[in-house]
Amino acid sequence: MTPMTEPPLNPPPPPPPGPGLPPAGYANNDEKTWALVAHFGGAAGALIGTGCAGWIAPLIALLAKGNESPAVRQHAVAALNFQILVSIVGIIGWITTCILIGFVIWLAAMAVGIIFGVLAGLKANEGQFYKYPISVPLVK
User: Fold this and answer.
1) Residue 109 exposed, middle or buried by CB count within 10 Å (0-12, 13-18, 19+)
2) Range of the domain at 87
3) 3 belongs to a structural domain
4) N-to-C CA span, the chain
5) Quick one: how far is CA 12 from the chain centroid?
6) Topology in the membrane (predicted)?
């Protein structure tokens, strides 16, 4: 047998960060926690508030840590803009429930707020920024 002279095609992945080290994309673990509060809290608010309260957790994250951390601010503003839009649609759904189409609008707003909030939270957990598919830049 001849010795292998070519390097392997795929190098091994880098080792995961050790305990006490900040996750990728964040300066410290506190930033990651607040980014997750913004996204997962928005999804939870959309569920608990039946499509109309998803904006509360991102607003809390923005007010609590937005001035201290650019990463938290970026995540919180993205989540807040998305959840405000979903909440407006949810409120329109509630108002128009008497003509039955509002029930469909309300359920769709709640589902969209939950699904995309969870997807954004999973990306934030990996240290990446998630761009929501529908969003209006109301908060900058």
Assistant:
1) buried
2) 29-125
3) no
4) 64
5) 30
6) Multi-pass membrane protein
Mean pLDDT (the chain) is 82
Residue 86 tokens read as: 């979903």
Rounded CA-CA distance 42/59 in Å is: 9
The pLDDT tens digits for 37-96 are 999 999 998 888 887 888 999 999 999 998 898 989 999 999 999 999 999 988 888 888
DSSP 3-state assignment of 24? coil
Per-residue CA distances from 68 to 8, 20, 63, 85, 130 (Å): 44, 20, 10, 26, 20
Residue 7 lies in a domain: no
**DSSP 8-state assignment for residue 100:** S
Q: What is the amino acid identity at position 37?
A: V
Residue 123 CA to residue 128 CA, distance in Å, equals 5
Are 92 and 98 within 8 A, CB to CB?
A: no
Report the share of the chain in percent with pLDDT over 90: 25
Number of domains in the chain: 1
